[in-house]
């Protein structure tokens, strides 16, 4: 039996989402910028989807740009804000555990003349407000902090950071790719200027996302030029079918959020209970913050077992999980998140991320946990 436990990487497309998208690949295929009937039908679907997504996250439709995904949204936010500041050398603050879709643009911005401060985290992956406050300079133009970490599930204090940033007149960007649908987001109350989203993390299609930007508080320099789409902020013909799918997936996820959360909590508790039963309390280590974390992501280490070896054995058993490390050019590179948390090498080098979602059952979780424990015991011998 195949068991998929990598929902933090991507999720299966919901059947209702696929049905909502199909007409925009067939009969309603017009370009939304065209003025004829085919185009107007696509434009209506685009406007309806923008309004639907905006209503769920609490922002004006005029402040929501559709993009190709979370990576483009993050790049647009960082470059768009920093490049809008002329004259003095700008300064940006972020954290060492951000997704590479933030860290890599930040690195390029450094080469382009922007100073960047990378804040540390504690052993649970949580940042400290006082560290942000100390890092602020007169030339600080942007703070970028992710809402939910994609590897360990730790939730950052976004409300407090937002209040601090707003009080200092600094633009605040939040990568909310792992938070959308899992945490209630109300941008009418959060003091956030930019927020990135992606559809394929909530059973929507790949290749579509969104960027909220507060047009009343900041000026954003467009990064993709060409046409006048997306209010001249992001050129290129919109992915109408994908955007319709995004709106539908968010509608379903929002409606079922309590059920999905209860399922994730049950899955996490079941896996934890079986691992305790099979390996004992000292046989594994759970990574992340026990008080400030989402139940959907369960990052666990098995000291004495190499991550890649365990993942390969799990895959042979039909269980899909993820690594806390990445292979690059044939060499094993430790996860930058776990490294930043300064965990012992025995813990960081044996971490596996299980992430739960649509299609998982308690029976699956118990089977996966028992199989994991069996493999771990065998490898330790």
Question: Which percent range describes the beta-strand content?
Answer: 15-25%
- SSE-based structural type: alpha/beta
Over all CA atoms, what is the radius of gyration? 21 Å
**Order of strands across the widest beta sheet?**
2-8-7-6-5-3-4
The major pleated sheet works out as: 7 strands, mixed
Residue share in helices?
25-40%
Q: Low-confidence parts, pLDDT < 50 over ≥5 residues? A: 326-331
Written as H for each helix and E for each strand, in order along the chain, the element string is EHHEHEHEHEHEEEHHEEHEEEEHHEH
Count every beta strand, where a strand is a DSSP E run of 2 or more residues: 15
> How far apart lie the N and C ends?
26 Å
**Broad shape:** globular
Overall pLDDT, averaged?
94
Number of helices: 12
Which features would summarize this protein structure in a list?
381 residues, 7-stranded mixed β-sheet, alpha/beta
């Amino acid at each position: 039996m195949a068991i998929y436990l990598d929902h933090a990487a991507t999720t299966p497309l919901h059947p209702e989402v696929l049905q909502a998208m199909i007409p925009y690949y067939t009969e309603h295929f017009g370009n939304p910028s065209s003025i004829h009937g085919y185009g107007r039908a696509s434009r209506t679907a685009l406007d309806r989807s923008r309004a639907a997504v905006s209503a769920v996250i609490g922002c004006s439709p005029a402040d929501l740009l559709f993009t190709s995904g979370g990576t483009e949204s993050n790049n647009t936010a960082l470059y768009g804000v920093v490049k809008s500041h002329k004259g003095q050398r700008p300064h940006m603050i972020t954290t060492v555990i951000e997704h590479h879709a933030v860290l890599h643009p930040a690195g390029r911005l450094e080469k382009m003349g922007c100073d960047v401060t990378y804040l540390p985290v504690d052993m649970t992956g949580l940042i400290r407000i006082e560290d942000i406050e100390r890092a602020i300079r007169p030339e600080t133009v942007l703070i970028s902090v992710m809402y939910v970490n994609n590897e360990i599930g730790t939730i950052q204090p976004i409300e407090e950071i937002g209040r601090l940033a707003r009080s200092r007149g600094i633009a605040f960007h939040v990568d909310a790719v792992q938070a959308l649908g899992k945490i209630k987001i109300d941008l009418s109350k959060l003091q956030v200027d930019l927020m990135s989203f992606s559809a394929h993390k909530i059973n929507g299609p790949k290749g579509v996302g969104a960027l909220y930007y507060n047009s009343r508080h900041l000026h954003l320099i467009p990064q993709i030029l060409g046409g006048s789409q997306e209010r001249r902020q992001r050129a290129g013909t919109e992915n109408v079918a994908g955007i319709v799918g995004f709106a539908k997936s968010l509608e379903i996820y929002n409606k079922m959020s309590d059920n999905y959360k209860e399922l994730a909590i049950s899955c996490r508790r079941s896996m934890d209970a079986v691992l305790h039963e099979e390996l004992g309390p000292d046989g594994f280590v759970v990574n992340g913050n026990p008080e400030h974390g989402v139940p959907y992501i369960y990052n666990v280490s098995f000291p004495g077992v190499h991550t890649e070896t365990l993942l390969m054995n799990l895959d042979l058993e039909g269980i899909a999980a993820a690594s806390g490390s990445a292979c690059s050019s044939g060499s094993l590179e430790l996860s930058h998140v776990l490294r930043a948390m300064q965990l012992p090498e025995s813990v960081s080098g044996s971490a596996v991320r299980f992430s739960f979602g649509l299609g998982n059952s308690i029976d699956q979780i118990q089977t996966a946990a028992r199989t994991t424990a069996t493999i771990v015991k065998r490898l330790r011998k």
